[in-house]
């Protein structure tokens, strides 16, 4: 690793108020300052943006940041401006293009944000010819790779720009890239193998819970009761978003919807309200989230199956970016896997095997009786401990039942009834429940009629759900069940089948009147100074037209309340208190400390 210039720590403290780097930040910044191209694979919340924002302040010239969403750019612009960084964007939503171009040509910009579709245009390349470019930072770099979970052709179109400015180093950043995707990015961006820095995929502050979806409104209500802070609930369709938002609103919780069916101005207003809030729930389709950098999201829930493990990791990673404890909940059903496997036929044939592997990996994640975090980390090539102590399976280990014989009975019943009946009919056949339809079709005379006793009857539906997730049972055109891949091996007794039965969740700790946990919570309870600081932050943010976290994170306010500094020099030692913020708000904070 190149040596870090001594001035880097000074710039880090002056700009961001931090006395040291976190995790892999130092290794990435060292390479960038040395002019070496780099691919940084860092988990969400690890401070990826700092790895180009700090060099942008220190290097001669402008850092061009390629980012996929306008809202994300503008969110980062607010944070950069609050830290005294000269930043601008060139997007279809910006009305000050002439001023931005003039500042770029004059060398008065540290950062210039641009979308990939604009960056790939010849006129943008011509514009950069008139400026000094210090670095290209490509955010969400997994979009470059056809092997990635979110391939975007606009990213591939960046190659002519990067090749034209071949002497300018490039920094590719992503939170979700498996081994194949990383290799693809390195090759596409001509980054040497020693330029790969993998920071690790663990987010220890996030608790993972995955449950079969049996009563989603009640399951989500339990999460909302336990988590009064801001959160995101992902729903698979626009209609589901609207239904869930109405249900949550009826319970008195502040909630807004977000999906493509809403007018642009409504989506923008809803997103702005959520970003500025300290307790709101956003119910959204998966398009929401990539456009925000909100650090204090306390929970992320999925009301349906995510697209892939990579998508799940990225979406849940929007919780707890401030490092404070955060919760995630995924609710899944067999029908989610049925639809996902049907969609595989719509994928280009050369991509189908990789997409099938992703779906099988998701099935393994929802079914595993072992540590969820360990499975996630192994998926990305890590060798984690067997347990984490902060997922549902570690906190409440499920019972693992050997249901091989029951699986053989179930598959046999599907086969012997003609592979055209739904689970309800199959279940009645297996338990021997009298039914006119069964009698009319002669299914009461089959050898499988009544072969499942009362002790196993309750496992038939969970087992059918698991077999559908694995693709062993597949749907027919008319909604029945048929045998799929792997069924023959189970029927022959060649493949054992296990079924994890989740333990009853432990009761959440009772909360105090203000909704915060009485012990182990991130923020202090009943501290007048801390609450006064939060109130001051709220009003200051409203006056400045920015979200509260742009002013200060909760962690900074907690440290102020704990340390109670009495001078600007002492306040300047608080984490997150950069030179710009100290000069602008330092006296107001000290006045509050003296008052309380």
In short:
With 596 residues, the chain is an alpha/beta fold. It has 4 domains: 6-198, P-loop containing nucleotide triphosphate hydrolases (Rossmann fold), CATH 3.40.50.300; 206-332 and 368-395, 3-Layer(aba) Sandwich (Rossmann fold); 401-501, Winged helix-like DNA-binding domain superfamily/Winged helix DNA-binding domain (Arc Repressor Mutant, subunit A), CATH 1.10.10.10; 528-595, HRDC domain (DNA polymerase, domain 1, Orthogonal Bundle), CATH 1.10.150.
Describe the structure.
This protein is α/β, with parallel strands linked by helices and 596 residues long. It is 44% helix and 13% strand. The chain is globular, with a radius of gyration of 27 Å.
| Protein structure class | alpha/beta
Beta-strand residue fraction = 5-15%
Give a quick account of the main beta sheet: strands, pairing sense, barrel closure: 7 strands, parallel
- What is the count of structural domains? 4
Any key phrases for this structure?
596 residues, alpha/beta, Rossmann fold, seven-stranded parallel β-sheet, 29 helices, 44% helix
Structural topology:
Blueprint: H1 6-16, H2 25-33, E1 38-41, H3 50-58, E2 62-66, H4 70-82, E3 87-90, H5 97-105, E4 111-114, H6 116-119, H7 122-129, E5 133-138, H8 153-156, H9 159-164, E6 170-174, H10 179-188, E7 196-198, E8 206-212, H11 216-226, E9 231-234, H12 238-250, E10 255-258, H13 264-276, E11 281-284, E12 299-302, H14 309-316, E13 326-332, H15 334-343, H16 352-367, H17 372-379, H18 392-395, E14 399-402, H19 404-416, H20 423-431, H21 436-440, H22 454-457, H23 460-470, E15 473-475, E16 481-483, H24 487-491, E17 498-501, H25 528-544, H26 548-551, H27 554-563, H28 568-571, H29 579-595
Parallel strand pairs: 1-6, 1-7, 2-4, 2-5, 3-4, 5-6, 8-13, 9-11, 9-12, 10-11, 12-13
Antiparallel strand pairs: 14-17, 15-16
Helix pairs in contact: 1-3, 2-3, 15-23, 19-20, 25-27
